[in-house]
Design brief:
By secondary structure, the protein is of the alpha/beta class. The protein contains eleven helices and eleven strands. It binds zinc ion.
Length: 342
């Protein structure tokens, strides 16, 4: 089975995820099912919902146009307390030898050894848990944080986030705040990946201008195939390619389908089509996976992480060579993480 590194999941914050070492019938992902599907590593998001609900899955309509205002902001103290609790779920798994929390690229490589535990990259999806003066950033780095999105799809002191809209350009709202610029610079200095997936287009270009490292959108699709505000325009794709970065192709059906339908009855082939589109435009070195397991509706035929071998077969059918599939499934993410963590 080909080893897979996936760029984004929300398993740590889904309901019933207090112990991911136990197999569950709920959601898309836990450690036993990861083993079964060949997923040996991934970026594990820590997310604080606006409304205090334990689960954070966003649902959209059956199809057609859609517009939602940005979610309510969340207070820094609330987010900090919640995020520490969620991070502890991951650190507890590490203490028990169930996962390795990546602190260096050697940790990522270790997960490819036969019988080794999988590797998890700790990620903040929205940086509300970090104060505006960035005093907590080093504490988080020590805790294991190696990746962060300045915003989820809501405003905070760093940026504005992209609202969920369809059809819509991602150019909705203002870019980074002054504190947002400082956050991106501080992340680049320490070696914390800055993820662009929930930024609006102004924020995207603000980060790009800082040249903090290869540009990364951990879980997005191609706007040319699905004109949702969360997807990347050709110009954004070109910038990602030029920077040496990557797009983790999202499995969330609203961002895959041309009609935005939040519908599990969506063919797996669409994921391969987005991968194909990005590869044809900027090169296969800039294509990777970014499922959004446990954060969105995914094609039903995958049935969660255990279905990954079916996706590999779909990539093969889309014309990718074995070496290209290896790069999409592992090598490209490894290159990006190594570049940011140097
Ligand atoms: Zn997300």
């Amino acid at each position: 089975m080909i080893p897979i590194f996936d760029g984004h999941n929300d398993a740590l914050t889904r309901e019933g995820s207090e112990d991911l070492a136990r197999r569950s019938e709920r959601g898309h992902l836990d450690l036993p099912r990861m083993r079964e599907g060949g997923m040996r590593g991934g970026i594990f998001a820590i997310f604080t919902p606006s409304d205090g609900e334990p689960s954070r899955q966003v649902s959209f309509g059956a199809s057609g146009s859609y517009a939602e205002p940005l979610a309510e902001p969340v207070a820094q103290e609330v987010a900090a307390a919640h995020a520490v609790r969620i991070a502890d779920r991951l650190l507890d798994l590490e203490r028990r030898g169930e996962v390795v929390v990546a602190r260096s690229i050697a940790d990522v490589d270790s997960a490819r050894r036969e019988g080794a535990p999988p590797v998890a990259v700790m990620h903040l999806e929205g940086a509300e848990a970090i104060d505006g003066e960035l005093k907590l950033l080093d504490t988080w780095y020590k805790r294991g944080l190696r990746s962060l999105g300045p915003v989820w799809s809501r405003a905070n002191v760093f940026a504005h986030g992209v609202p969920f809209r369809f059809p819509s350009s991602p150019d909705v709202g203002p870019g980074l705040t002054e504190r947002g610029f400082a956050l991106v610079a501080a992340c680049a200095e320490r070696g914390i990946v800055v993820d662009l997936s929930h930024l609006n287009e102004a924020g995207f270009w603000d980060v790009a201008r800082l040249e903090p490292g290869p540009l990364v959108a951990s879980h997005s699709g191609a706007h040319a195939l699905c004109p949702a505000s969360r997807n990347l325009t050709d110009r954004q794709l070109d910038a990602i390619g030029t920077s040496g970065g990557l797009v983790g192709i999202v499995f969330a059906t609203p961002f895959l389908r041309p009609d935005f339908a939040d519908d599990p009855n969506t063919p797996l082939r669409l994921i391969a089509e987005h991968a194909r589109y990005v590869a044809d435009r900027i090169g296969v070195a800039h294509v990777a996976l970014g499922s959004d397991f446990d954060g969105a509706t995914i094609p039903g035929s995958l049935a969660g992480v255990t279905g990954l071998p079916l996706l590999v077969a779909a990539l093969r059918r889309a014309g990718f060579e074995p070496a290209e599939i290896e790069a999409i499934c592992w090598g490209n993410w490894r290159r990006i993480l190594a570049a940011w963590w140097r």
